[in-house]
TrEMBL record:
UniProt keyword annotation of Transcription present: no
Protein name: Multidrug resistance protein MdtA
Source organism (scientific name): Sulfurospirillum diekertiae
Entry's family note: Belongs to the membrane fusion protein (MFP) (TC 8.A.1) family.
Top-rank taxon: Bacteria
Swiss-Prot/TrEMBL keywords: Cell inner membrane, Cell membrane, Membrane, Transmembrane, Transmembrane helix, Transport
Localization per record: Cell membrane
Domain Multidrug resistance protein MdtA-like C-terminal permuted SH3: 318-379
Single Gene Ontology MF annotation: efflux transmembrane transporter activity
Length: 407
């Protein structure tokens, strides 16, 4: 048996490692050569993205530039307020005997709402009437004595002082009768006040006092509150930079139309007119407060209701406009994709004066004959080919039911 020395063992291990390294290198080179031989000879299946956008036809919806009269609205947030809020209160003290109104009903001025126990007032009236009869009898007797004294004075049977005293007594009774008549009027008035009537027309609110309670003229709460809602008003604010245009419009037309929309700004509730404006701008908000008035014959507006107010300032004639969906925003401002005759699009910078009824009014950048892309703009770039599969018409004047915030 032969044994290898340690030095021989180390040499054998080094020789084995060199062989394996050589095999690994050769295998790697063969793999690289095979890759280039197989894949390099095949045509490339990928394309330049720029060439794809340049040759690919994009399906889009378009709309032509239109021309017409566009109403210019200023929009503000408003709150409906009644023309008057009247607390129904008793003018006399007494027990509430009957309530004759239904909560929430419409009432007219003079309608009977409640009745107070009137017996004490009837007694006071009878007392005043009895006192008047008594004093009238005293006056009649004093007048008879006065005539008698006048005859006796002519006969020199009494002194002048007696006649003067009787004359003064007659005047006293006459004054007493005046007081009695006033007492009767006061008693009648108190009796009338025992029947509580509506001080104004409007919608009456919830009952604040129940039947059977004692009520007083000094009570602050009252029986109920009547809100005058026909007509009704709404207050709203607009930025101070809109004030010059509004004052100019008032100077030109005297009356400005106002539309009230619901909270979502989608449903028209009522139409009215601008009634007044405040006399100073709120420095904290930079706004001016306005008040609009509505007939509200259909009772669609309620006090404290939130509304979107649209104030018609002017009508722009022969305005060029496109759907607002066509307007895009970039680093250089607003732009649209204009469709050219070769069915490609170009980026066109535009200047917009305002946005109304879902349409943007174009001041610069487009002509009446131009066509712009409305839907599918996210797939486009300069020079893209398009297929105009649908053409969208901008809303007509007859179909405009709301307006967007102006720019």
């Amino acid at each position: 048996m032969s044994f290898s020395t340690p030095s021989e063992t180390i040499k054998n291990q080094k020789s084995s490692l060199k062989k394996w390294a050589l095999v690994l290198i050769i295998g790697t080179l063969i793999g690289i050569a095979s890759y280039f031989t197989v894949f390099k000879s095949q045509p490339s299946t990928s394309n330049d993205p720029r060439k794809v956008f340049a040759t690919r036809v994009m399906s889009v919806s378009t709309a032509p530039v239109q021309q017409g009269a566009i109403k210019i609205f200023f929009q503000g947030l408003g709150t409906v307020i009644p023309l008057s809020n009247v607390v129904v209160k008793s003018r006399v003290d007494g027990q509430l005997m009957d309530i004759l109104f239904t909560e929430g009903q419409m009432v007219k001025q003079g309608d009977v709402l409640a009745k107070i126990d009137a017996r004490s007032f009837e007694v006071q009236l009878k007392q005043a009437q009895g006192q008047l009869l008594k004093d009238q009898a005293l006056l009649e007797n004093a007048l008879i004595d006065l005539k008698r004294y006048e005859v006796l004075l002519q006969q020199d049977s009494i002194s002048k002082q007696v006649l003067d005293t009787q004359t003064a007594l007659v005047h006293q009774y006459q004054g007493t009768i005046k007081v009695d008549e006033a007492s009767i009027d006061s008693a009648k008035l108190q009796l009338d006040y025992s029947t509580i009537t509506a001080p104004t027309s409007g919608r009456i609110g919830l009952r604040l006092v129940d039947k059977g309670n004692m009520i007083h003229a000094s009570d602050t709460t009252g029986l109920a509150v009547i809100a005058q809602i026909n007509p009704i008003s709404a207050t709203f604010t607009l930025p101070e930079d809109k004030v010059p245009a509004i004052t100019q419009a008032l100077h030109d037309t005297k009356t400005l139309e106002v539309e009230a929309y619901d909270r979502s700004d989608s449903i028209l509730i009522a139409k009215g007119h601008l009634a007044s404006m405040d006399n100073q701008i709120d420095t904290a908000t930079g706004t001016l407060k306005f008040k609009a008035e509505f007939d509200n014959t259909e009772n669609k507006l309620f006090p404290n209701q939130f509304v979107n107010i649209h104030l018609l300032v002017t009508t722009k004639q022969n305005a060029l406009y496109v759907p607002s969906a066509a307007i895009q925003h970039g680093s250089q401002g607003n732009f649209v994709y204009r469709v050219k005759e070769d069915q490609t699009v170009s980026v066109q910078q535009v200047k917009i004066s305002s946005t109304q009824n879902g349409n943007s009014i174009i001041e610069e950048g487009l002509n009446l004959s131009d066509i712009v892309v409305v839907d599918g703009v996210d797939k486009l770039r300069e020079g893209s080919k398009v297929d105009m599969n649908a053409t969208k018409e901008t809303p007509s004047k007859a179909s405009r039911t709301k307006n967007d915030t102006q720019k």
